[in-house]
Amino acid sequence: MTLAPKAVTAASAVAAFGASVALANLLTLPRLRRGGPTVIEPVTVCVPARDEADRLPELIADLRAQPDLPRLRVLVLDDGSTDDTFEAARAAIRGDHRFLLSRNDTEPAPGWTGKTAACARLAELADTADGVLIFLDADVRLAPGALSAAVRELRSARTDLLCPWPRQLAVSPAERLVQPLLCWSWASTLPVAPANRTRRPSMAVACGQFLVFDAAAYRAVGGHAAVADSVTEDLAIARELRRAGRPTALVAAGPLAETRMYRDAAEVSEGYTRWLWSAYGGPTGSLAVGSIAALAFWVPPIAAVCGRGRVRRIGLLGYTAAVAARLLARSTEKGGPVDATDALAALAHPFSVAAYLALSARSHRAHRTRALRWKGRTVG
Q1: pTM higher than 0.70 for the full model?
Q2: pLDDT at residue 47 above 80?
Q3: CB of 299 within 8 A of CB of 3?
Q4: Strands (DSSP E) along the chain, which ranges?
Q5: Which residues contact 273 (CB under 8 A, 6 or more apart)?
Q6: What is the mean pLDDT of residues 262-269?
């Protein structure tokens, strides 16, 4: 196979840039740390849950074990579940007076997604204009001290939204192939330390699994009502805050927080298909990003295998840089060293990119035909 040296060099340069950014983030990204004074201000945790009977009890147990939060309140909303979410949550709460469990049996109003409607309802129930408002997904797991560490970081960083990035767990082959791309996508492209200092909406990063707001700032921008129709409400609300001149910041939360978003290939496919159509501003942006990814992460390994001489050496360097970026991003996310499973997933990076491109194409196609669904609801 004949490969143009300039194309191989350009692709490898993109991969090397990604590795350098990932290294910078590993060295400079703020991280949640245990320890510090008791959090005196009121902290309200909001947990929207739909069909989470098997996951929600573990989160409730984690929340009950959080220290240093004497004014903690937890609001749990069963959002029209078709399983035993409500009963499982009630059993896990065990009469703890800090918890309020409620149920919503109505579908979202036109112009709202299920997630944004549930979060807005929880914010209404919170009915607080000060203190801290935290939104947690039911699949998040928290170590003792995680919430107080997040609140202290919110205040010490003087930000209005802190986005602790949980360690993303991956067990099945499909998860290992795709899930690490979430962290890698920003860790290898955006220097987060300077991005945390700017108010540019385009440089915001957020993770809706764990969002920590100054309550007054959240209400000042309209809360989730301001992003009612967004399927990536986490990023949308971070951008709303920045447009209003309010700071947001990303921090690494592993190992204090972790989550397993999806548990098999079917969930991975359905989960990413649900929202990838909205990434990068639409089909044109997705095509541009996909083309760059294909160039940067397919051409070098092909050159390393099929090229000769200088082309092969440059291709090998590019592939090595891509693998290094994956491992650096994974270490940033985990808050510790990578293991053999991480290394194997990184070596399969070209196949991960292929899986992403296939999911992106599937998402755009499903959105165009209005076939998107998630947990029994139409999306988009």
Answers
A1: yes
A2: yes
A3: yes
A4: 43-49, 72-79, 99-104, 132-136, 140-142, 161-165, 167-168, 210-214, 248-252, 257-259, 373-374, 377-378
A5: 359, 362, 363, 366, 372
A6: 93
